[in-house]
Design a protein that fits this description.
The chain is built from ten helices and ten strands. The chain has about 280 residues and is an alpha/beta fold. The strands form two sheets. It has an eight-stranded parallel sheet with strand order 3-4-5-6-7-8-9-10. It has a two-stranded antiparallel ribbon with strand order 1-2. The protein is globular and about 55 Å long.
Length: about 280
Amino acid sequence: MTVPTITLNDGHSIPQLGFGVFKVDPAETERIVTDALEAGYRHIDTAAIYGNEEGVGRAIAKSGIARDELFITTKLWNSEQGTASAHAAIDESLTKLGLESVNLYLIHWPVASKGLYLESWLALEEIKAAGKATSIGVSNFQIPQLEEVIAGSSTVPAVNQIELHPEFQQRDIREFASANGIHIEAWGPLGQGKYDLLGNPAITAAAQATGKTPAQVVIRWHLQHGIVVFPKSNSAARIAENFDVLDFELTADQIAAIDALDAGNRVGSHPDDVN
């Protein structure tokens, strides 16, 4: 079955189900991304700080898949002063990926303590204008930071990639994003294994009713909320399982039961603490 797509605020489309390579060993990245591409993924999400862009690039090159069938995201590590550093960073990422452009370029963290995120955002506008990124967005931005980049530039971010899973649903940011035409992407969509999400009765009941696994139920919950989601695994079997979520739907009651799990349980870093 075909992965659903979402039309971004700049008119470009994005596959809603992608494969993330956070904490994927650079030595294993080529194999793991190859497994993902063979399973059917066409949307790969990496970042400069992951140290595995070269492995992603090798897997893309060896896949034989046409470039226009792939959606590739990478991210700026927003730690240095000046617009020039952002331009140097995208050039380095493109070299490592073996690409002329990425489909989406994100500011990885706002690093609010350094006050560079608006300057970096203006640099991303230039990077897009230069044809090195088709779309631009942000990651881990909170509402005041989103407001500042919207007010201080001519481009509304296409996406905001944030920690999001059933016990941490970030509804305030999602509502702001929806009102401003920003699409939400979820990192850590299964809670990173830091709590017993997959053993929760609301999720296991839905899994039993649908004949799917608890992980597949959670991924499906994200998809039905219109979220772009990146399940991650190093196992070929699990990678394929996580992709096998396009042939069923959760009922309204099942969605509501998972919605009710929101507990403000952040398991990753708070954006204010990443400096």
